[in-house]
Amino acid sequence: MYVRDGMYEIKKWFNCPTDQPQILDGSIVLLPGSIIRKDPGEKIFIGPGCTLQEGALLHAHGGETGGIFLGPANNLGHYAVVHGHVVTEYDVFFGVRSTVHNIKTGHHVYIGHESKVINSDLGSNIEFQECAKIKNSIIGNNVRIGDNCVIKNAVIEDNVVIEAGARIYGSHEKRITIGSHTKLCRACEVYTDLKPHSYVGVRKVVVTPEEVEQIDTVNLNPVTDFGEHVWEHNMELAHISPEVVEELKKQYFSHCE
After folding, report:
1. Which of 104, 126, 112, 90 is nearest to 224 (CA)?
2. CA distance 130 to 205
3. Which residues have C-beta within 8 Å of that of residue 82, sequence separation ≥ 6?
4. CA dist 133 to 33, 76, 159, 171, 225, Å?
5. pTM, 2 dp
6. Which one, out of 54, 110, 116, 168, has a CA that is 20 to 30 A from the CA of 122?
7. What does the pLDDT look like over 111-149, one tens digit per residue?
8. Calpha distance 50→37 (Å, rounded)
9. Each residue of 70-92: pLDDT tens digit?
């Protein structure tokens, strides 16, 4: 692993001074080719139980943005890129060749392989499948997003299921809102606000408020056990027994106070 501050390699990885990347004891960051880099004035904090797999990159960049703060048991897959200002809670998985830039996340978040998340806020208990693209959006809790979905300039409320290939497009002037407990089926497209419990069928295109009044409704129950699955997966990768998980959380949150 190479830990870099600008052009200089840092030899000391644990208990670093505050102006160098801080890596708590218990982190596993020694896989070959992983890189931690920060620009002058930025900060990097890596919580306990984190794993950077081969080729993963952390780069705190963008001026006075606050840096990168990874919570406990985060896992960066091969060649994952975490860039800019990024703040995560515990148990976040960045898939192989995924890219995130300027995001905040809750806990139990799975960002699928080759997905991209840019300038967005994510809640907790979220799953992105492969090759999803999220930009300038806010994602609530208990949300499932399928393969190859595109979400731009949108607010996705809690308990929403978005199937593979769906497209959601707001504008820079106004984000559109997808109401809670909504289901968007495969390859549909949405360009306007949806009320809670909306159901948009396969390949259906919804552009105007008048079309919203014509769509069906659905009683969608949230999936609540997914977060525990991700948590167990990351614990296994970090080689941490369940008995020490709560202690690791306490270490992290006390450090950030």
Report:
1. 126
2. 23
3. 56, 57, 58, 59, 68, 70, 76, 94, 100
4. 26, 18, 19, 16, 24
5. 0.79
6. 54
7. 999 999 999 999 999 999 999 999 999 999 999 999 999
8. 16
9. 988 899 999 999 999 999 998 99
Q: What stretch of H or E contains 200?
A: strand 198-200
In DSSP terms, which residues pair with 152 in a beta bridge? 135, 169
- What DSSP letter does each residue of 20-77 carry, written as one string? S-EE-TT-B--STT-EEEE-TT--EEE-TT-EE-TT-EEEE-SSSS--EEE-TT-EE-
CATH numbers and ranges of domains, the chain = 1-125+225-243 (2.160.10.10), 129-223 (2.160.10)
- Evaluate whether 3 touches 22 at the Cβ level (below 8 Å): no
Q: In this structure, what DSSP letter does residue 194 have?
A: B
Q: How many helices, marked H, and strands, marked E, lie in the chain?
A: 3, 28
Question: Which is more confidently placed, 228 or 21?
Answer: 21
pLDDT value for 226: 42
The arrangement of strands across the sheet holding 92-94 comes to: 51-52, 75-76, 92-94, 109-111, 126-128, 143-145, 161-162, 183-184, 198-200, 216-217
Assigned token pair, 197? 């419990």
Q: Which amino acid is at 243?
A: E
Identify whether the C-beta of residue 164 lies closer than 8 Å to the C-beta of residue 181.
Answer: no
pLDDT value at residue 44: 86
